[in-house]
Specification:
The protein has 23 helices and 16 strands. By secondary structure, the protein is an alpha+beta fold. It folds into four domains: 7-190, Acyl-CoA dehydrogenase/oxidase, N-terminal domain (Butyryl-Coa Dehydrogenase, subunit A, domain 1); 357-435, no CATH class; 454-589, Butyryl-CoA Dehydrogenase, subunit A, domain 2; 595-729, Butyryl-CoA Dehydrogenase, subunit A, domain 3. One of its GO terms (molecular function) is flavin adenine dinucleotide binding.
Length: 736
């Protein structure tokens, strides 16, 4: 897996970034508004840096660079609100080179002396249409029926009109202007169609660059502006939407990257991924600039403030092609109705999202294990919660070295890297074995290994590692929720050194099945709440422990547990007295930002199956309808977004690339998308989805109920949003 650009691409990014910082500053952007939104000097400077030669082959006088190289430029162009039809010109020059016959114009276009752009719609059907850069274009490459034509645009045909963002768009009567046929037939049409697909990807990346710049402007302001005596960045009504938006912005770029990778790999979903990348980016940009304006308040509405420039261009750039929702419908047809398109040549591509051979090997091993050891009767009782635990299968997995995959080898685990762990989770999901027993056991085992006494390792850790005992987590308490450091359950040390545990723990999932609980207890009531805590292992079968069931609408049992003078030896203490916070942090080593993409994908597959069964009025099945195709495509986009955010978290951990709250992003973002899509798919397949009959309907029904829990357990979405806002966006702390 690789999210890194090449050294050459990084150098190119730096070169363009420096140039654009100087030549596409907001002052220059404002100046260009006086000329209809076009900066001729900037255009010439971009040409000198080779911008318009990037996608032109070396044989035709260009640089022959790949699509990702052009995307690197477009991300910087979006960040700096480039004044000119850059994405369109990159595609147009490439088409001129491919189709040939216009050497002089191509040379002038590469040199920045002529502006050549593209028309989005067939001139035969829409002779008069809006064209990006039409106000300054010397020529337009367009489709006209079975021909690809070059339309010459005389100066008198370029009529300036006020428009949303004062960009150099113009409505041109292309059918009435002089034109030359560049090429005809299937190959020519395919070349032009692939150019439009390339434009979608370039525009998607440009919008992600624009969105990130707008959001960072708003975040910086929120960290400086005070209201009611505090920084407004501490207001979660402002910071939490920013946390959502940075996930969307990153996803929009990664979706474009994923589409490029899929093209290179010959994946059948590549065409749909292109459509979804631009649809997704357009939506994310619109939501981002809206919130940015809101953050600035009244000043954000003024033309004196730069944020309005981002707001208007975020909408204007993609809308030249029409309603962005058309791209979602297009993706639906490409995924579910067999629609195909010609794809651009992406060239060399260093980015890679393959999990690797080790990942495939562990998946194969898991599937072989279940085929050999698990019966259909056992599968019938599988469940995502603790209630799906089967001690026999768990023991067999331990013996096959398939239970503690994340746990380091020195602890007795498999020691797999995050990529293989992600792949293993997918394989377990495919098999339906998704209960949390092994995951919690790994966490508790690691803490016992690092901080436990020899006696504890002998008496408890050995049982956990052999599969003869399992553990629960005792962090939360009534009234504390996600604030685990507010724990009041107390541990009092006795004269003989032993401890008495008294209090209540809430949401002790699995306590009715497990042997031990990892418990955070208050040992110094006078110390600051983060410092007066100590970690213990407490046996759940001990005298004084009461386990009371709490049932959820997710078909998942959890528990409230009561501890009344439960005595444990000091040897079962983990770490120093009053050092429980540091002890608990050791478990974070097993956090790889997995998220919920695997269950989202399973839900999508169930929805596809059910839509293929449901009949609709007039004949046919639900999956044949445009509405179902579009909504399934939207879920597919969110599955990819969740996967890419999780992959980024894996990759940054493996390569030590720093932590911009990538793990919390993966968890929060995927759980929120899971609940949104589960609600929508429940609606789409109603009333069949109301049923709990075994099969796809029951699966969608359960997915809707399950999704609610994913936004709460393991830390609520609100807590993770605060972490993302603080670590990922530099906003001030919003929690005391």
């Amino acid at each position: 897996m690789n999210f890194d650009l090449t050294d050459e691409q990084e150098m190119m990014r730096d070169t363009f970034a420096r140039f654009l910082d100087d030549n596409s500053s907001t002052a220059r952007v404002r100046k260009a508004l006086e000329n209809g939104g076009f900066d001729a000097e900037l255009w010439e400077g971009l040409a000198e840096l080779g911008a318009f030669a990037m996608r032109v082959s070396e044989e035709a006088g260009g640089m022959g660079l790949g699509l990702l190289d052009a995307a690197v430029l477009m991300e910087e162009a979006g960040r700096t609100l480039v004044s000119g039809p850059l994405a369109e010109a990159l595609v147009a020059t490439s088409l001129l080179a491919r189709l040939g016959g216009q050497d002089e114009l191509l040379e002038n276009a590469i040199a920045g002396a002529s502006v050549v752009t593209i028309a989005m719609h067939d001139v035969a059907e829409f002779p008069k249409q809006w064209v990006a850069g039409g106000l300054v274009a010397d020529a337009v490459v367009a489709r006209k029926g079975n021909d690809i034509v070059l339309v010459s645009v005389p100066e008198e045909a370029r009529v300036a009109e006020p428009n949303l963002a004062t960009t150099p768009i113009a409505e041109l009567d292309l059918g009435a202007l002089p034109s030359t046929v560049l090429a005809s037939g299937d190959d020519a049409l395919a070349a032009f169609a692939s150019g439009l697909e390339e434009w979608k990807l370039l525009m998607a990346v440009a919008l992600s660059g624009l969105s990130r710049a707008a959001l960072m402007m708003a975040a910086e302001y929120a960290g400086e502006r005070k209201a009611f005596g505090v920084f407004i960045g501490t207001f979660q009504a402002l910071s939490h939407p920013m946390a959502d938006l940075i996930c969307e912005i990153d996803s929009s770029k990664f979706l474009a990257w994923r589409a490029m990778r899929s093209i290179a790999d010959g994946q059948t979903e590549a065409g749909a991924q292109i459509s979804l990348s631009i649809w997704y980016a357009a939506g994310a940009a619109g939501r981002t600039v809206r919130h940015a304006v809101q953050t600035f308040g009244g000043i954000g509405l003024t033309t004196e403030h730069d944020i309005h420039l981002y707001n208007l261009r975020a909408k204007a750039w993609p809308l030249i092609a029409g309603d962005p929702e058309d791209w979602l419908a297009e993706a639906g047809r490409r995924l579910y109705a067999g629609e195909t398109t010609s794809l651009p040549d992406v060239g060399e591509l260093a980015i890679e999202f393959d999990l690797g051979e080790d990942a495939r090997a562990i998946q194969k091993e898991i599937h072989e294990f279940f085929a050999k050891n698990v019966t259909d009767e056992q599968r019938e009782k599988f469940h995502f919660s603790w209630e799906g635990h089967n001690p026999v299968i768990h023991k067999q997995l331990v013996e096959a070295n398939l239970a503690y995959l994340q746990l380091p080898k020195d602890v007795g685990g498999r020691g797999l890297d995050p990529y293989a762990v992600t792949a293993a989770r997918d394989a377990f999901e495919e098999e339906g074995w998704t209960n949390p027993v092994a995951g919690v056991a790994q966490m508790v085992a690691l803490i016992m290994y690092r901080f436990g006494t020899d006696e504890l390792k002998r008496d408890v850790l050995s049982k956990v590692m052999s599969g003869d005992a399992i553990c629960s987590l005792g962090y939360s308490e009534p009234g504390c929720g996600s604030d685990v450091f507010a724990a009041k359950c107390k541990a009092t040390q006795q004269e003989d050194g032993s401890w008495l545990i008294d209090g209540t723990k809430m949401w002790t999932s699995g306590a009715n099945l497990t042997d031990y609980v990892l418990m955070l207890c208050r040992t110094d009531p006078d110390a600051p709440k983060h410092k007066g805590l100590t970690m213990f292992i407490v046996p759940l079968k001990a005298e004084g422990v009461t386990v009371q069931a709490v049932h959820t609408f997710m078909d998942e049992r959890t528990n409230v547990t009561f501890y009344d003078n439960v005595r444990i030896p000091d040897t079962w203490r983990l770490g120093p007295i009053n050092g429980g916070g540091r002890t608990m942090a050791a478990s974070l080593e097993l956090e790889h930002g997995g998220g919920f993409a695997k269950v989202q994908r399973a839900m999508l597959e169930d929805a596809e199956e059910l839509c293929g069964e449901i009949k609709v009025t007039g004949g046919g099945k639900l999956i044949d309808t445009p509405k179902a195709q579009a909504r399934l495509a939207r879920t597919y986009a969110n599955v990819l977004a969740s996967e890419m955010i999780a992959y980024r978290a894996n990759w940054t951990q493996v390569h030590g690339k720093g932590n911009g709250a990538y793990g919390p992003m993966a968890k929060m973002f995927s759980s929120e998308l899971f609940i949104t899509d589960s609600r929508d798919l429940l609606d789409l397949t109603a009333p069949h989805s109301l049923s709990k009959r075994k099969g796809a309907a029951d699966a969608i029904n359960l997915a809707y109920r399950h999704a609610h829990g994913t936004t709460i357990y393991g830390g609520t979405s609100q807590v993770h949003r605060s972490m993302i806002a603080e670590k990922g966006l530099g906003l001030p702390r919003s929690r005391n």
